[in-house]
Automatic annotation (TrEMBL):
Region Disordered: start-end pairs: 145-233, 501-529
Name this protein carries in UniProt: Uncharacterized protein
One term of GO molecular function: ATP binding
InterPro entries linked: Dimethylallyltransferase, IPT, P-loop_NTPase
Domain of life of the source: Eukaryota
Protein source organism: Batillaria attramentaria
């Protein structure tokens, strides 16, 4: 009897410009699969050029899902919404098409492809925080209390497993008015809410902490409008970052050790999770990992038969390819496309303080911020030498932003896929797309071989990539030599200790201490008058 067909969930990773869409279509045609787009910007209608969507002809070669499903002026899309569109939904509140499960039930191969790797993670693992995960946390705490006969501590005993997940996202599902708060955490929640209520009397420091971006969209101006910041952070917007971190130390010390005091986004998120659910975010993560042996919960893959392909190109070649792609976008009507949606945007209620907010919705896409000066010019001004100079400046800024975005994508893939800790990280197979003339030999044929082996339930002859040795190990260190600088991973801490700046500061401190000691000795040896 022939073995049952094992349909894998195929995931195609890679920086922008490496050929992910091309490979997805070819695999879809070869295996009769369907493509699920995991690109946060391609979910919006319009901007086909700037978001580099596949053409109608390419879409006709293989069914595509989750393209053009959002209104271009929608600004409330989240990774949770994407997950709920792509996965089977337990809650009856949602009525999205259950793409992945439907395809698997029909014995069709789901091929997940896109540049928003955080979205892909949400399909492979359950690490988003919602009511289901909070209920799991309460059950885990109750079980521990019963078995140990005592109250559990805020501090987790599973620091090592926390390395598997360094991020989460608060669900947009409204919190129940009767959300049960674990008795252990009730005093801290009340304390935090009181601190929040006192925020009106706190003078803001006006600091703006730029941090590494959560991958998924192009980097935008870190100087957000105060109104946009207030909407995202609520009453926490009135606190400076260091004060917020001190609040987090009181209610969730484990997360506070994990997050740098200047990583404002993550600190605020952890505070919001505790404020909303009455449970530390670290406790929720620990409960997810503890239940990872159950299919569908964090720690274990939702789809054990997952096949992850990473398209890679030489950096110099990729940079040149991306620059050429920007030139092609200009030829295909990039500026006109931006202008049309920009005009539509200005006519909407989404304008903040008289100018667009490039931190929301599709306007986070590369292009709007870079061409802002040009877009607000009149047709006559654009034809002047100054206008043409501003256009050229925007083109160069777009090229730079695209190259930087590709590098951030690669960093995310290394940290969150290749170097993912734990026994439930899928194998990642590298495919070299540097030379287009060798596409079949270096990309398509190996990909077909790897996926075919997964279909048979076998390991392919091609070896997966090995995790890099210098993967991040989370620690918490404070350098008192360098004015109390904080480090939250071993790699940065080790690099700092060997840095020229630290050695210079340490030497200066030793000289100062030696001079002070000599001064004290001199005073002690002075004859009494």
């Amino acid at each position: 009897m022939a073995a049952a067909r094992r349909v894998p969930v195929v995931v195609i990773l890679g920086a922008t410009g490496t050929g992910k869409s091309k490979l997805a279509i070819e695999l879809g045609r070869h295996f009769g699969g369907e493509i699920i787009s995991a690109d946060s910007m391609q979910m919006y209608q319009g901007l086909d050029v700037i978001t580099n969507k596949v053409t109608q002809d390419e879409q006709s070669q293989c069914p595509h899902h989750l393209l053009n499903v959002l209104h271009p002026l929608s600004t409330n899309n989240t990774v949770t919404n994407f997950r709920d569109m792509a996965l089977p939904i337990v809650s009856l509140t949602y009525h999205w098409v259950h793409q992945v499960e439907r395809l698997l039930n029909e014995n069709k191969m789901p091929i997940i492809v896109g540049g928003t790797n955080y979205y892909i993670e949400s399909l492979l693992w359950n690490f988003l925080i919602d009511h289901q995960t909070v209920e799991l946390t309460h059950k885990t705490a109750a079980t521990e209390n019963f078995s140990q006969g005592e109250e559990t501590s805020n501090k987790s005993t599973a620091n090592a497993t926390l390395g598997e997940k360094s991020d989460s996202c608060v669900s947009t599902t409204p919190c129940s008015e009767h959300q049960q708060v674990h008795p252990e955490h009730k005093p801290q929640q009340e304390h935090l809410q009181q601190l929040g209520n006192d925020s009106e009397n706190l003078v803001s420091s006006g600091s703006s902490d730029e941090e590494p971006e959560e991958e998924g969209v192009a980097r935008t101006n870190p100087q957000e409008s105060s109104k946009a910041k207030k909407e995202k952070e609520g009453h926490y917007a009135d606190f400076d970052s260091l004060h917020l971190h001190s609040l987090l130390q009181k209610v969730d010390p484990e997360s506070a050790k994990r997050f740098h005091p200047k990583n404002r986004r993550k600190v605020v998120r952890a505070l919001q999770v505790f404020d909303k659910y009455g449970v530390p975010m670290s406790a929720i993560h620990n409960a997810q990992h503890a239940s990872g042996r159950t299919p569908g919960l964090s720690g274990g893959l939702r789809y054990p038969n997952s096949c992850v392909l990473w398209l890679r190109s030489g950096q110099t070649v990729l940079d040149e390819r991306l620059d050429k792609r920007v030139e092609q976008m200009l030829e295909h009507g990039l500026v006109l496309e931006l202008h049309e949606l920009h005009t539509q945007y200005l006519d909407s209620v989404a304008v903040r303080d008289g100018k667009p907010d490039y931190t929301l919705g599709i306007f986070q896409s590369i292009g709007f911020k870079e061409f802002h000066e040009y877009l607000i010019m009149s047709p006559e001004e654009r034809e002047t030498p100054q206008g043409k100079g501003i256009l050229e400046k925007g083109v160069e800024a777009l090229k730079l932003a695209t190259r930087q975005y590709a590098r951030r994508q690669l960093k995310w893939i290394r940290n969150r896929f290749l170097n993912r800790a734990g026994p439930h990280a899928p194998d990642v197979y590298g495919l070299d797309s540097t030379d287009p003339s060798q596409w079949t030999e270096h990309v398509l044929d190996p990909a077909i071989e790897i996926v075919s082996a997964a279909l048979r339930g076998e390991k392919p002859a091609i070896q997966p990539l090995s995790p890099e040795r210098n993967s991040t190990i989370h620690v918490h260190n404070v350098c008192h030599v360098c004015e109390g600088r904080v480090f939250v991973n071993l790699k940065d801490w080790t690099a700092h200790l060997s840095s020229r700046r630290h050695k210079k500061m340490a030497q200066r401190k030793r000289h100062k201490e030696k001079a002070e000691a000599c001064e004290v000795n001199a005073r002690c040896t002075e004859p009494a008058s």
